[in-house]
Each structure stands twice: as structure tokens, then as C-alpha cells.
Amino acid sequence: MAQVPASALPQARTRLVALLVGLFTLYIVGLDQGLLLSVVQGELAFDQNLIHEVIHDARHTAAFPCH
Asked: How many whole angstroms separate alpha carbon 37 and alpha carbon 52?
């Protein structure tokens, strides 16, 4: 097994964090329909659908169908 130099670990960690943040952002913009806020708001989050309404135009710009 090849060994990774210690100087490469912070760069790999930064890339991993950037990837995870990007995937989370993609989920919020493209897929969330109230699930994230339901942790705080309960069933009201699904009725209000605040995240969807706030970034509605961004979804269309990114070619995500939402209705």
C-alpha cells in the first residue's frame, strides 16, 4: 500500500469538506421539500415549504424541475 505524505492530508481534508458542503448545497437547492426545517418546525415545514420558496428561481436556473 502506498503511503500518503503528511503534507497532502490537509489538502485532502479540505477537498473532502468542500465536496460534502457542495453535496449538501445541491440537496438543499435541488431536493429539499421541507425536510430540513421539519426538525425545528415539525409538520408546519412541509406546509410552508420555506426553503423551496426562497430558492425557487435558483432551482429553475439550475435546471431542477420543481413542479
From this structure: 11
Per residue in 24-48, pLDDT tens? 888 877 777 778 777 777 888 778 7
Q: C-alpha distances in angstroms, 9 versus 5, 18, 23, 29, 64?
A: 7, 14, 21, 30, 35
Does some domain include residue 23? no
CA 15 to chain centre: 16
Three-class SS state of 42 = coil
Has residue 38 been placed in a domain? yes
Tell whether 8 is covered by a domain.
no
pLDDT at 6 over 70: no
Nine cell digits for residue 55: 430558492
pTM, two decimal places: 0.60
